[in-house]
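for ur thesis appendix - Iron complex outermembrane receptor protein. copy paste whatever u need, i formatted it the way the template wanted (i think)
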Amino acid sequence: MGLLSQLAFLLSCSTALAATAEPAGDNMARRHDHPRPASSRTMPAATPKPSAKGEDIQVVGAVSNATGVTNTTPGGGLLAPETAPQAQQTVTRDFIAKQSPTSNPLSLIQYVPGVTLSSADAFGQSDQSSFYMRGMGQTSVGYTLNGIPTADPTHYVPYTSQAADTENISHLTVQQGVADIAMPVYNALAGSIKESLADPAEHFGGKIDLSYGNHQAAREFIRLDSGEIGHSGIKTFASYSYGTHAMWLGPGRSRRSHVDAMALKEWGDGNSARVFLTYNQSSEPYLMSITKQQWKQYGRSAAYYDPTYTTGDYNYYKLNATQQHSVIIGAPVSFNLGHGLTFESAPYYVHIHGAGNNGQTQAEYGYNGTQPTGNLNLPNAEDGYASVLAIDNWNQHTAGFNNTLSWKLGHNELKAGYWYNYYDQHEIAPLSQIGPNGEGENYWGKYPIRGQDGVPLMMFNIHLIQQLNSLFISDTYKALNDRLTLNAGFKYVMMSYHSTNDIPGDQYNYGRNDAQPLPQVSASFQITPHDQIYLDGATAFMEPSGILVYGTYWDGSAPIVDQAHSTNLKAEYSISEEIGYRHTGLVNVTASFFNYNMTNKQSAISTYIGGRLVSNYINAGGQTSRGFQFAAGLRPWHGFSPYVSFQYLHVTTDNNLPRGVDYIRSAGKIAPYSPKTTVNVGLSYDNGNFFANGYMSYVGSQYATYMDDQTMPAYATGNVTAGYRFKKLWIAKSPQVQVNVMNITDNKYLSAGNGGYNAKTTTGVFGSTIAGRAPTYIVGGGFGIVFSVTTGF
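the 3d part is after this line
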């Protein structure tokens, strides 16, 4: 797409969004609930002032740059001041803008204590990367964009690269441990991530960013801000980006097209309405999981897919890939009703449509469940079997709204809310023929293999409808000139599931209902204007994960089950306690001790079935997690801003786990993928023109199985940034050049694992021999370098 066509496209998006906003109102007054947008215009510098939400700002000066950097946030943008009575850390534009434009939000929060990033690519862009928070996987973390829940409602995967381009992210707030009671999430055992888009700019303008790097990386970004349209008080922006790079491990390319857009109207005292949209289209080959033995023998090359196809070669890269389209639409509004009353509502719609493919062997005479298909007439069959493409096609629609009514009266603030969510998912697994070039007839399974009766051959055909109703009430009391804050709240979540699997021989209807009470309390005391202590106690839960919880994975070559649907899973429930301290000033410090007790802990044991990596969720019983986290950062001093964070973690499995007819002796052992220590250190420098930073992350060794009989080694990686801002040049405002280097030493390491019961053969509790199975791992991202040129206009 050419530059002129991109500009025309963005202008049309801005105009279309403006048409959906409210009419003009009188007495315009800007709220400070959201940071000012990153704009190419000269704008006030902003530093977050203490807030329970970590979202308020305070105007302290003026800078002029195209990226929204203010050089006011301690720790180089990683440690904004907070006063929430819980562990919480906000990452601002001072850090975000200096990272690679290819980054997704996961790589932007990797230095927050409690977060362990499992990087999977060289640029921090892939959604195949994952993370842990306080030893719990990403499926245990709530995730919202501008208050809209955007994670996959069945697998809880956040898919953060779909949500927004880095240039449009205003800030990211990480709540380690306790999510806000009003947040529309129901899987936040480990905490939450709140991502916020930058608002449209006050004046007409825009930004262009061009990036190029190794592995044939190229990315273009353009944003157009309308400024205020006439005297309507309406402001809009729209942006478009396209990025691509060759896979850093093996053949293939990653591609991503993305659109962000927003219209904003503010009026009166505390009234606002936003309509925002993000659209994302991406494709990339899968990453191969390998065993530790393969890693030792072949290193990174063990994870390479084959670049050319030969018949029966299921490691051909085009047979192991994924594509996904998504759209997120939200319309959050806030009304000041007077007399201390405020009403907020956030209706939303999220659509995700994707497909993942892999090659496998199929018998010429197949089965749909238990029903014979007859001769499938596979043209490439030899000795009764042929190579076919197995397709996993998922289509998800989510819609709902989250309402909150607040009433401030004297020293009290009473809140009540209602959240409704409707989720409809249809996921099918058809098989398709593979041509001589190694590609299927259709990537999305449009032309499936059919039996003699004309019915498509499928391994599952699941339709799930999930409905949620959630109510909460909370009260906050302040005393001693607002130095003491007490809060108590209660949330009640009711969920219903109905699922069908339209495969002969399978149970057609699955259904269940669940209701969970979720009380929480917190307190904080402002010892001095700069020192605070806090404590909190909370509960959280997470429903069983994955579409195959409610359906069975059948073998297409025989009337047998490859993976049975889960029968013993219950909602995971957590009770947590925390006590913390924070100091704000020239140096910001935050520290907390935490404890979790979990029942019905969900854990994924992943195995390859017919070439496809499939997660089987198990009930791991009880788990106890205890630890300490710490972070400190200096407010920019003569341009310098150092940062350090640390976490100590001790996580144990509380009971023996069932394995076949026996139990493995897992009670009291360290839980998988819970490193005892993680350390992050960094230093940022910015004098207004030249800027540079460097950050190093160390992750201790981690057990990969519940028997603690295989270890994923410790590793350390470092990232470096350098850049220079120029003065205005013709229409280019604050042009700058920047270089980002990821994994600067090209450290070779394993970054994530797929878990397992026991790697070595062991004797069970009842004396039986339990065979071991080697866990598999993802190779950590390699050396990446990205050069960027950015300017406002």
